[in-house]
Amino acid sequence: MKYSTAILTLIFMFLLKSVAGQVGYQKDSLQIKVYTEVEYQNYWAQDIRVKKVFCDYCTKFQKEQIGNEALRRTYLVRNNKKFRMPSGVFRHALYIRIAKKDFARLREDNMMKDSVLTINEQRN
After folding, report:
1. Is residue 31 within 8 Å of 96, Cβ to Cβ?
2. What are phi and psi of 117, to 5 degrees?
């Protein structure tokens, strides 16, 4: 009886630890939602606009930089078959995930250094 209780306790502790390890990225990163619009005419993208950056704790500069990243990501998918339209406006919702440390470095006085949002692409 004592051994079975100890084994069950160990298994339960192991399962709890593995579940907590799966959400580790949420502890050290922020997820910011951005709405963009792509205007199409004859299946060709004519204009890409950022409608709204949902970030309550961002400065104006940070919102502008996150909006620029959303524009870049929307531009890269503008010709995707899922999004193209004969004519009209496609509304695109993006979730941009950024580490808290990188977000803290995203300031105007840090602008001359590497861009925080595209730092992985510059290494390649």
Report:
1. yes
2. -75, -20
- Kind plus residue range of the DSSP H or E element containing 67: helix 60-76
Task: List Cβ neighbours of 69 (8 Å cut-off, separation of 6 or more).
Answer: 96, 117, 118
Query: Are 92 and 78 spatial neighbours (Cβ–Cβ below 8 Å)?
Result: no
Asked whether the whole model's pTM tops 0.85, one would answer: no
Segment 45-80, tens digit of pLDDT: 999 999 999 999 888 999 999 999 999 999 999 988
SS3 14: helix
Q: Which long-range contacts (CB under 8 A, 24 or more apart) does 79-83 make?
A: 79/45, 83/38
